[in-house]
């Protein structure tokens, strides 16, 4: 179990781990002795130039079907996140079609070449070294005919623009791979009557990968009773050092909250869950809990867990995807529209990732009155969202194995405080305006639970959709 004098981050978003597959053929060996070694060095140079974007595994140059299948198999066995295909010369597509169409790893085709320009000094060797584009065309054609999703990244491999596009694709590949491995823990059951959070769990597993793990509230209760006292006191000490703690909170209230947070964290670790959801009725009706785990959700989100309220697996999934793809994702919903400021008040019942709080206002851990759930007052972490660019993303189940991501870019504005609102909150102004954004959101079936990330990140979400087959809709 982790200790808590310092904020733990058990689920850091690791650097993408990408395999570079260089393709050529033995046709040119007699004409240009040593060409394989020459182009292998070029492949390593490409990986070195992109070292800021990912950790690279460079396969030996692939010149035939068996070599291609062996290299891709080794990438899969190494649990890499994706494969960047680089044409070292022209390589016939049928020698790599089997490996590239059968792999589960996300693919990108680098449309590049060793030299950025054609010069009068070029000879036949230079022509051969730089003829990758028609190999890329051959291979892309094979992937299109096989209906295999892939990204294409064109440009000078030494340019900043090329590295930026590889970075976006590599992060999307890491997120897509993370979704395939994701387990979402649901404590109890989802909220009755809430339709937009419901999903066919088998379709979700087949299409995107997340698996739902139902955890009985009684298991959580027993876990809270089996904690090391030092872990409980360490967590409370860390909260004292991190938040502005409400003096009205009693030691008993804080200890009970700390036990719930540590109990949830232990169960998620034991079950291999990197996202979770709780529902207030499932906790309240159990009869063994004194309060809802509000502050727990905020700090666990800050540690990198996906979270959503009311048993919403879809929203918990998209929050976890946001953590992997971008970092510091946040669970929220549209509460009310403010037409004079052309913004939307964003909040939820009391859960929010405090890492997106305003830097000039430290988050508060307060004694908060809450009637929902019929339990005692839950300690709650309260803050206002950091101002600046932000992006909303909602994962929509369309039926069967069809999923849609509804995305809106905008900014969190510097709106006046709302002193009576004892929840994390902020006001989001969509780039398209409240009228156009909300109308398009509704027409697209966007859900009322969503992830928020800082920055303009629509392109990142679009890249993830392209790799996973999720329909992308920007509003």
UniProtKB/TrEMBL annotation:
PANTHER family: L-ARABINOSE ISOMERASE
Limits of the L-arabinose isomerase C-terminal domain: 329-471
Superkingdom, natural source: Bacteria
Domain L-arabinose isomerase central: 194-324
L-arabinose isomerase N-terminal domain span: 34-177
The protein's name in its UniProt record: L-arabinose isomerase
Gene Ontology CC annotations of this record: cytosol
Gene expressing this chain: araA
Tagged with keyword Cell wall biogenesis/degradation: no
GO biological process, one term: L-arabinose catabolic process to D-xylulose 5-phosphate
Keywords on record: Arabinose catabolism, Carbohydrate metabolism, Isomerase, Manganese, Metal-binding
GO molecular function terms noted in the UniProt entry: L-arabinose isomerase activity; metal ion binding
Lineage: Bacteria, Bacillati, Actinomycetota, Actinomycetes, Streptosporangiales
Cited Pfam families: AraA_central, AraA_N, Arabinose_Iso_C
């Amino acid at each position: 179990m982790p200790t808590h004098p310092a904020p733990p981050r058990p689920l850091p978003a690791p650097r993408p781990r990408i395999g570079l597959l260089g393709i050529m053929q033995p046709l040119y060996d007699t004409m240009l002795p040593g060409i394989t070694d020459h182009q292998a060095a070029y492949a390593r140079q490409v990986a070195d130039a992109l070292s800021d974007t990912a950790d690279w595994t460079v396969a030996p140059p692939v010149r035939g079907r068996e070599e291609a299948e062996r290299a891709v198999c080794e990438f899969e066995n190494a649990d890499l996140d994706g494969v960047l295909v680089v044409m070292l010369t022209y390589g016939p597509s049928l020698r790599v079609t089997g490996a590239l169409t059968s792999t589960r790893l996300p693919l990108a085709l680098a449309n590049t070449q060793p030299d950025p320009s054609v010069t009068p000094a070029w000879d036949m060797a230079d022509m051969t070294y730089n003829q990758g584009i028609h190999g890329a065309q051959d291979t892309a054609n094979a992937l299109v005919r096989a209906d295999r999703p892939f990204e294409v990244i064109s440009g000078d491999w030494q340019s900043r623009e090329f590295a930026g596009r590889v970075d976006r694709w590599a992060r999307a590949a890491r997120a897509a791979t993370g979704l395939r491995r994701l387990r979402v823990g649901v404590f109890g059951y989802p909220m009755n009557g809430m339709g937009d959070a419901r999903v066919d769990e088998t379709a979700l597993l087949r299409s995107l990968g997340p698996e739902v793990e139902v955890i009985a509230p009684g298991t959580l209760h027993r876990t809270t009773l089996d904690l090391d006292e030092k872990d409980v006191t360490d967590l409370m000490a860390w909260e004292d050092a991190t938040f502005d703690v409400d003096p009205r909170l009693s030691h008993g209230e804080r200890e009970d909250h700390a036990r719930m947070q540590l109990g949830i964290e232990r169960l998620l670790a034991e079950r291999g869950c990197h996202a979770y959801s709780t529902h207030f009725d499932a906790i309240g009706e159990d009869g063994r809990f004194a309060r809802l785990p509000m502050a727990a959700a905020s700090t666990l989100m800050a540690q990198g867990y996906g979270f959503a309220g009311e048993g919403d697996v879809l929203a918990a999934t998209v929050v976890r995807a946001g953590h992997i793809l971008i970092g510091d994702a946040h669970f929220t919903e549209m509460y009310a529209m403010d037409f004079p400021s052309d913004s939307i008040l964003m909040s939820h019942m009391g859960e929010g990732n405090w890492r997106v709080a305003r830097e000039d206002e430290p988050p508060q851990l307060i004694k908060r009155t809450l009637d929902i759930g019929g339990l005692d007052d839950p300690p709650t972490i309260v803050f206002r969202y950091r101002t600046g660019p932000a992006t909303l993303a909602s994962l929509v189940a369309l039926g069967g194995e069809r999923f849609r991501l509804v995305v809106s870019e905008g900014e969190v504005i510097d709106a006046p405080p709302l002193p009576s609102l004892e929840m994390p909150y902020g006001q989001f102004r969509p780039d398209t305006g409240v009228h156009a954004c909300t109308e398009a959101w509704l027409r697209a079936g966007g859900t009322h639970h969503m992830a928020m990330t800082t920055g303009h990140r629509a392109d990142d979400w679009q890249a993830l959709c392209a790799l996973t087959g999720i329909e992308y809709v920007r509003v």
